[in-house]
Amino acid sequence: MSNLLKILLIEDDAIEVMKLNRAITSLELKHQIIEANNGEEALEILKKKEILPDIILLDLNMPKINGIEFLGILKEDDTLKYIPTIILTTSNNQKDLLSCYKIGVAGYVLKPLKYEEYVSKIESLLSYWSINELIKV
Amino acid sequence: MSQDQLDILQRALEREKKARKAAERILEEKSRELFQTSQQIEQLLQEKSSQLQGIFENIVDAYVVMDLDGNILKFNEAATTLFGYDLDIESVNVMNLIHKDDYQYAMSSFLDLQTNGLFKNYETRVCTKSGEVKWVHVNGSLVLDNTNTPIAAQGIVRDITDQKTSKEKLIESENRLAALVLNLDSGIVLEDENRKIVLTNKKFCELFNLSAQPEDLIGMDCIAASEQNKLLFKNPKAFLERMKEINLDKKPVVGDELEMLDGKILERDYMPITIGEKSKGFLWTFTDVTLKRTYRKSLEAQKQKYYSIIANMHLGLVEVNNEDEILMINQSFSEMSGYTQDEVIGKKGSELFPVEGGSEIISQENENRKQGKSNSYEIKVKTKQGEIRYWLISGAPNYNLKGEVVGSIGIHLDITDLKTLEFQKESLLLELEKSNNELQEYAHIVSHDLKSPLRSIDALVTWIKEDNKGKLDDVSLQNFTHIEGTLEKMELLISDILNYSSIGAFQIEKVEVNTDLLVKEIIKIIYVPEHISIAINKTLPTLKGDKVKLQQLFQNLISNAIKFINKPEGEIVIDVTSKDGFYEFSISDNGIGIEKQFHDKIFKIFHALNKSKDSTGIGLSIVKKIIDQHEGKIWLESELNKGTTFFFTLKK
Fold first, then answer.
1. Which of the listed residues B34, B58, B82 is the one where a domain comes to its end?
2. Which residues of B touch A114 (CB under 8 A)?
């Protein structure tokens, strides 16, 4: 029996947001998506601590606060630091990969070119996290 | 018979009686006298004998009597002491006494004795009972009986051992002296009152270029000789006159210097030799001092040479004592520092010039000098004009003749220009590194920014297709497929450009790489179509290189080979040859081949000869770049439609 996840998607590209929503829909999954267009917005949502997501999907290349900076802020927070954060990016920059794991991420997924491949990656990702026991604050 | 006759007879008888009586009386007297005389003689003989006996027994020298067979009959006390034999308890033959080396001589002397009845001044060695060898002097004679027949021999033996040794020593020392004089490194002439040569030596002959032997010159006239010798000198007249002067004075002269024509310089000494009041002659000594003089001169020249080097060199020179007080500076240092010598003499170098901790460096270095260590170091200084300069100082301890450190000498080189360049280089390098990093970052961001829209387009195309299933005609579907292909091409291009720009960005990290494992691994990973076989001819070597980049190198070349095979049965052969200092790898295929004119071009970026779906033209550029980074070479042999072989070298 898999859990239904509350997923915070931090993504500035509208089509990317559409992609995730459409993927979940086409996969017929019932997970809840919370959208944040950038780091600040995401922090606002998280600071309220009303709805805490189960997992965070984070894009790295964003204006203002970039993904790595956002990750740093998240890890500073005693509550938020426990939320598994999975990087979802096109950057296979070794440096980024290293610094992400250094700060602490739950995963690093490259966005493939092909949409079909994307859907299958998302499916695996979500099914994995939905069978995980998560800290509910 | 007549009375007369009878009377006559009577008277005659009477006379005869009287005469006989007188004769008897005389005879009686004479015999008494004779008795007395013989009594006296016997007494005298007895006296003389005992006297003689006493003399022989008591004389200091040994007295020896032997029979004609050489058996010793008698030793006096001295003889007993000398030879060590006691005749009372043992018998001795003269043969026991004679030294074996002097045997012949003893025999001939004995013959002399027999012929002449005596021998004198016989000097020989003898052996004593204790085996000691002694030199003795012997006078001997035969002892005759009243019929003049020899019955024994006697001799007086004197121990001359001590005399002999001291004489030998004297001879020895005389010989030594003679040898010394003969071989003396100074030429010597001893002349008598009449200026005739008494003694000279080899060196003299040598100095005056005489072919004669020293002994040949004895008796020669010195005045005549000097007339001849004067030609050897630069100033013959002066030579003669000075000689005459000295001769007249008869006073010691030391250290006259004479220059000879052949360049030799002689030192002449004159010494009258007197024993007591008596003049024994005059000693001239000539010493070759050429070397000494020229040595001094060359020393002087050397000193001058180094002095001018020091004075004129473009390096600043400073001499300081142990207290770091400046003793001397040269012209260059004066120019470098802006100070004149007078301004700095006695001042401390460590206080005058350095800035920013230079004083401590100098103090530390001065301690090193005291321990005899030399060193080079850089300091930042301020000149008299207040200009900041950088000096490279090479310091070495300065020793006195006793070998004690009395200070140090520093050679100063102004390296300000170099230093400026160094600083420039450093900042340029920093800048370069920074901009390299920025570029790298930039490449990543650009590639991300370029790739993101591709993903979006692909998603959108997919959605259009999904949302319009069954509504689109074949041509539209075909075009969508074209869009997707183009997107893939674009994606590959971006990835390759990023790869290419990444290669040069980082220092290559060389580790041991087993290329055999590496290549086999690649073959497993990449897609090899069924109709293509890959053969590795030999076990590939292990070498030093950047593992990731070497993997990329092999992967690109193998993929390339696969890509361009157009035969129904593809063959790829990987081989290696070990060469001097490097390995030569080859990867050959039986593909389409490359025309000669393009062989160089293909390694240049964006020069793909066959632009296809999976070829961006960057792969070989990456290969070339990796080879360059590993200091290797790459080239190819190819025939159109037959195949291509890529060769490349990697250092061992």
1. B58
2. 458, 484
CATH class of the structural domain A6-130: alpha beta
Cα nearest neighbour of A111 on chain B = B455
Question: Is the pTM above the cut of 0.80?
Answer: no
* Pair B562, B644 in one domain: yes
Considering only CB atoms, A13 lies closest to which of B445, B456, B491, namely B456
> The domain that contains B263 carries what CATH number?
3.30.450.20
| Dist CA B100 CA B110 (whole Å) | 15
Our count of domains for chain B comes to 6
Task: Pick the residue from chain A with its C-alpha nearest to B447.
Answer: A91
Neighbour-count burial for B186-202, b at 16+ CB within 10 Å, e otherwise: bbbbbbeeebebebbbb
Length of chain A: 137
Whether residues B52 and B128 fall in one domain: no
What phi and psi, each to the nearest 5 degrees, are found at residue B381?
-130, 170
Same domain, B260 and B353: no
Reported as a single tens digit per residue, the pLDDT across B486-539 is 898 888 888 888 877 777 655 677 889 999 999 998 998 888 899 999 999 999
Cross-chain Cβ contact B455/A22 below 8 Å:
no
Exposed / middle / buried, residue B394 (Cβ in 10 Å: 0-12, 13-18, 19+): middle
**Cβ atoms within 10 A of the Cβ of B284, count?**
23
**Does any domain span residue B171?**
no
Query: Does any domain span residue B300?
Result: no
Distance, in Å, from the CA atom of B485 to the CA atom of B493, rounded to the nearest integer, reads: 12
Domain boundaries, position B478: 421-491
CB contact under 8 A, B462 and A93: no
What is the length of chain B?
652
